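Archive entry. Fields below.
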Amino acid sequence: MAKKVSLNPGLKQLLEKGDKLYQTGLSVDTVIFGFHENVLKILVLDMQHNNKKALPGGFIKIDEPVEDAAYRVLQERTGVSNIFLQQFDVFSNPTRSDASVHQSRYKEYGIKLPKDHWLLKRFITIGFFALIDFTEVKTKASQLDAEYCEWVDIHKLDSMIMDHKEIVFKALESLRTQLAYTPIGKNLLPKKFTMPELQKLYETILDQKLDRRNFQRKMISFGILNKLNETRKGGAHKAPFLYTFNDKKYQKALKEGLYGSW
Amino acid sequence: MAKKVSLNPGLKQLLEKGDKLYQTGLSVDTVIFGFHENVLKILVLDMQHNNKKALPGGFIKIDEPVEDAAYRVLQERTGVSNIFLQQFDVFSNPTRSDASVHQSRYKEYGIKLPKDHWLLKRFITIGFFALIDFTEVKTKASQLDAEYCEWVDIHKLDSMIMDHKEIVFKALESLRTQLAYTPIGKNLLPKKFTMPELQKLYETILDQKLDRRNFQRKMISFGILNKLNETRKGGAHKAPFLYTFNDKKYQKALKEGLYGSW
DNA sequence: TTTCATTGCGTTAGTTAGACACAATATAAA
DNA sequence: TTTATATTGTGTCTAACTAACGCAATGAAA
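PREDICTED_STRUCTURE:
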């Protein structure tokens, strides 16, 4: 039934010595947000062995800060550095772990993990969300598991393993309540972007329509945008102007909080 | 030098079997906010053996959700149930642990922990903050360590162990940015309170003076307060009216966020 | 050349924020 | 008992802002 694929050295080491190399019972999972074609997406692992999706995650080295572990995961999956990353919650339901996820994964290598294997113990996972410029990401197969990540519309998610769907929606909720303090524009959009794009991003995260003209006025009043002398042609209609962020002012404004009544 | 105090059974078990009973390398620390005499305070442990303060913290049982562990700590230290509790960050600097804290603590029992003792390993701690009605708390000595908690003005904190001071200020920052979504009034004030008290609470957390009259108008416009037909006499001046929260409306308003430009 | 959805810029009415005035009141001081 | 004082309750006014909408310009498609 299960064809035996050879186990790569990294995976082998993980299975055999993982409990010596990593903090036991602890993991990180990352909800990586991207924005493309006016849709909010997240980067998920497409698990070939059970046809389900999983959040990119990993373990924490014995002497590593948790943030670094999350960062490693991000780098490995996206190839991008300098990513906005934020811890938002901890998921620790004692029954959240699911041995079958691991077992079915290693079955294709002809391996059955013993019942007391460290991977099958209870895991508490620390949730991070990341904001990343979609256009900079080159997804590639992981060196470890040869699995690919793909972007999925956050509203078209289904069949995720364990509690990963809950983690995603907690991340989104967290992003929403911290919107005034989070550089979503800077990190989710390409360097140059149009006002309609920025607006759509806010609308998507807030799940709420905003008035085009009032939005523009408000954004400009924050004093964080540079209007360029270029337009984005190619769309089917009037070409909108391009903008960039004035990084210094943006950072400063975020400290105080970009409040607003939306 | 160190007088030998007898080790109570709970502590003995913790030392000897802690690594079997609890998740290893993981702890929770709680920043318990209270508000009294117009000052924002936190509840800290007064460590007799080194004259420093520590956040109330604890370990996570093998099969326990992390929130439950934090809740246990709260209950033990305050005797109050039904406390607002929120995870806000994770502290995982590999060098944050400090063996001397434990060693000096057990020295008074005449115990020296071996170098590879589980308590001396690296710990990652999950930070929670709690909001509690000062008037309901009866601090008492812990059954385990016989140490007392005490309320300390958050602006007069010093000499805390390890990174606990950093944890406190991260908690405060977190509280601030989530103010619009956090029931600070309901949880930090007694059932009946005056408008000046509520205002002072916001001023303290925001570290900012607010106009008395505008604050009142705004609070009332949220529609979350019930004005009572009583006043708080005893103060040296005109007696202010008492209010209670309209719980239903408050909860609803918090979901949307009590936004404001302060 | 015309059509049309979209963008840029503008207007207006209603609301809110921010600053301040003044009377009422509970205790302390005289 | 009277007066003083700090504080609270209520109200006013202006500037600023929000929400809703108008209209001309534009760029691709028909």
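CURATOR_NOTE: Chain B has a mean pLDDT of 92.
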